[in-house]
């Protein structure tokens, strides 16, 4: 464990002094081309922006919003806010106007940086009239009170403020599945503890490269990209858009990569769209040819240089982990929450244990409560929820442990296995309790199922609502529906055989809709909003429950 916590700004100044001309941030530009910023460039722009912020004479610790997709100036704006003595409040770049206003008013934001966005007209009405806006270099069309160029015309600050470990660095609003998101208060000390220990744990260093594509406003990307880059000196490449993602990946050829299960599934589906699964699997089994084929597949994805591949936010089907392992890439699972900087548990290379996430990270204490809840404590734990002392008391115990809300167990080697959510467990009409997550994990191993949500509150038996993968939809549309149905019926039988009687699924319902962030079915971190799924399809549950077919098509 890192003995003395080195704080983010302190580490940034050290890196800037050690290798000022080293490439730090690589930003794709509209219409083609790249902007490459060195550590000195980033430091200069951040200091000028900090000088402008100081000239506003805001109260120290004022909250300043960042509303933008990932880009180089997201990180520079964050550094400037810290240097000027304030607190950054990042917002998801796809929020509705109402959600934007909700967060900005709750945080009492004094200013807002506005950058790269897809639907600024839809978000702009959520900006209070009194809130001044600053247009970043990559910004949408519109009127802003100030532009980044105005800030760069200012004299850079001459001092090197560090901020103390107990000072607030950022308020990270959780994506949440219901109601008002909570503002998680993280300090410079908690950021430093998590980032400093994480780069030691994985051996990330100056020669490493990372691609930033998941929302920087989320704690995982914040830690894995922004904070890790400051502490390790790695180069950060930014993805331009979903359309260019694979090209961006090949350009960066990252040596470390963090993804969520849906991303790893999409990579696999992309490979299968170019080569039939059976043929690829057959080639991978060949003793001499298999490793060569695996390397070519990884190179085609831009993953051939990856040393560490991590996945978080939800469990990864074991079949998918095995598939990557056969390609020559070990995907390690990590576990954490916004409330502990995403720093809790991580798999270790060569120590994979089927069905388990991995060991607790350096400096993390773990205990399992009487009700099976996983509770953790470390220097990465939040100060609390902003303006929410009662909710803070609900999740932080008197002795400083964080109640995760996840049920789980830990083995003698420290491996953690999650068995469900405390609050997601539902009761059937027979009075039996069912944890949906383990059942969903069993169903998700099927290559034609992309998303699944098990429902059953107040029903005689649970059922699973499934979204087919792109290949599955294509097969169904091209006359292979019967074959697909047969495969899914077999899956249902196999899963039910492994479940207790009260947990067994009465059927699979293949919904026609796509579950995405844009239509409200997923959080910005791609977690399924169960309340939205149940609210959308709930009126059909009774009807579907009366059907005889084990696989239903929701046409």
Describe this structure in words.
The chain is α/β, with parallel strands linked by helices and 555 residues long. The protein has 3 domains: 8-192, Rossmann fold; 237-421, Rossmann fold (3-Layer(aba) Sandwich); 426-554, ANL, C-terminal domain (GMP Synthetase, Chain A, domain 3, 2-Layer Sandwich). It is built from 18 helices and 27 strands. The strands form 7 sheets. The protein has a 5-stranded parallel β-sheet with strand order 4-3-5-6-7, with helices on both faces. Strands 12-13-14-15-16 form a 5-stranded mixed β-sheet. A 4-stranded mixed β-sheet has the order 2-1-11-10, with helices on both faces. A hairpin with a 5-residue loop joins strand 1 (23-28) and strand 2 (34-38). It is globular.
Task: Lay out the secondary structure.
Elements: H1 8-18, E1 23-28, E2 34-38, H2 39-55, E3 63-67, H3 72-83, E4 87-91, H4 97-107, E5 111-114, H5 120-123, E6 132-135, E7 146-147, H6 148-152, E8 168-173, E9 183-187, H7 188-202, E10 209-212, H8 219-232, E11 235-238, H9 245-252, E12 256-259, H10 261-274, H11 277-285, H12 289-301, E13 308-311, H13 318-327, E14 331-335, E15 345-346, E16 359-360, E17 365-368, E18 373-377, E19 384-385, H14 389-395, E20 402-410, E21 416-421, E22 426-427, E23 433-434, H15 436-443, E24 449-455, E25 463-468, H16 470-477, H17 481-497, E26 508-511, H18 530-545, E27 551-554
Parallel strand pairs: 1-11, 3-4, 3-5, 5-6, 6-7, 10-11, 12-13, 13-14, 25-26, 26-27
Antiparallel strand pairs: 1-2, 8-9, 9-19, 14-15, 15-16, 17-18, 18-20, 20-21, 22-23, 24-25
Helix pairs in contact: 2-3, 7-8, 11-12
Protein name: AMP-binding protein
Catalytic activity: a long-chain fatty acid + ATP + CoA = a long-chain fatty acyl-CoA + AMP + diphosphate
Coiled coil: 481-508
């Amino acid at each position: 464990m890192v003995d003395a916590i080195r704080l983010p700004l302190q580490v940034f100044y050290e890196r800037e002094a050690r290798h000022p001309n080293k490439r730090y941030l690589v930003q794709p530009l509209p219409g083609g081309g790249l902007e490459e910023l060195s550590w000195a460039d980033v430091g200069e722009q951040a200091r000028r922006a900090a000088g402008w912020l100081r000239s506003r004479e805001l109260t120290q610790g004022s909250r300043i919003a960042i509303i933008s997709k990932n880009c180089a100036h997201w990180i520079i704006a964050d550094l400037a806010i810290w240097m000027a003595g304030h607190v950054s409040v990042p917002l998801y770049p796809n929020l509705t106007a109402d959600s934007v206003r909700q967060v900005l008013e709750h945080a009492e934001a004094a200013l807002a940086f506005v950058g790269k966005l897809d639907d600024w007209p839809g978000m702009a009405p959520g900006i209070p009239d009194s809130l001044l806006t600053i247009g970043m270099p990559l910004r949408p069309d519109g009127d802003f009170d100030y532009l980044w160029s105005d800030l760069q015309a200012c004299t850079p600050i001459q001092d090197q403020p560090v901020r103390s470990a107990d000072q607030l660095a950022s308020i990270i609003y959780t994506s949440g599945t219901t109601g008002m998101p909570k503002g998680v208060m993280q300090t410079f000390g908690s950021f430093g503890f998590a980032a400093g220990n994480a780069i030691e744990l994985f051996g990330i260093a100056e020669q490493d490269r990372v691609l930033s594509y998941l929302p920087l406003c989320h704690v995982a990307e914040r830690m894995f990209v922004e904070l890790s880059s400051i502490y390790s000196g790695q180069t950060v490449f930014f993805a331009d858009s979903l359309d260019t993602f694979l090209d961006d990946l090949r350009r960066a050829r990252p040596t470390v990569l963090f993804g969520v299960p849906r991303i790893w599934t999409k990579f696999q589906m992309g490979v299968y769209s170019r080569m039939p699964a059976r043929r690829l699997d057959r080639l991978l089994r060949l003793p001499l040819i298999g490793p060569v084929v695996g390397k070519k597949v990884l190179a085609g994805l831009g993953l051939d240089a990856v040393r560490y591949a991590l996945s978080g936010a939800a469990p990864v089907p074991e079949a998918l982990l095995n598939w990557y392992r056969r390609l020559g890439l070990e995907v390690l699972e990590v576990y954490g929450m916004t409330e502990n900087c995403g720093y809790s548990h991580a798999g270790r290379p060569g120590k994979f244990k089927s069905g388990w996430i991995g060991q607790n990270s350096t400096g993390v204490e773990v205990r399992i409560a009487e009700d099976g809840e996983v509770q953790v404590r470390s220097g990465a734990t939040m100060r609390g929820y902003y303006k929410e002392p009662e909710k803070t008391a609900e999740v932080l115990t008197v002795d400083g442990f964080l109640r995760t809300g996840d049920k789980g167990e830990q083995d003698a080697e420290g491996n953690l296995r999650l068995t469900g959510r405390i609050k997601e467990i539902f009761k059937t009409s027979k009075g039996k309790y069912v944890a949906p997550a383990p059942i969903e994990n069993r169903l998700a191993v099927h290559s034609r199922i992309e998303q699944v949500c098990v429902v059953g509150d107040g029903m005689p038996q649970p059922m699973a609502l499934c979204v087919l993968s792109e290949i599955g939809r294509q097969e169904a549309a091209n006359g292979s529906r019967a074959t697909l149905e047969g495969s899914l019926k077999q899956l249902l039988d196999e899963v039910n055989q492994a479940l207790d009687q009260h947990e067994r699924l009465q059927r699979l319902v293949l919904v026609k809709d796509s579950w995405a962030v844009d239509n409200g079915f997923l959080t910005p971190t791609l977690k399924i909003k169960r309340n939205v799924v149940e609210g959308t399809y709930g009126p059909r549950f009774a009807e579907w429950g009366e059907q005889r077919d084990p696989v239903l098509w929701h046409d």
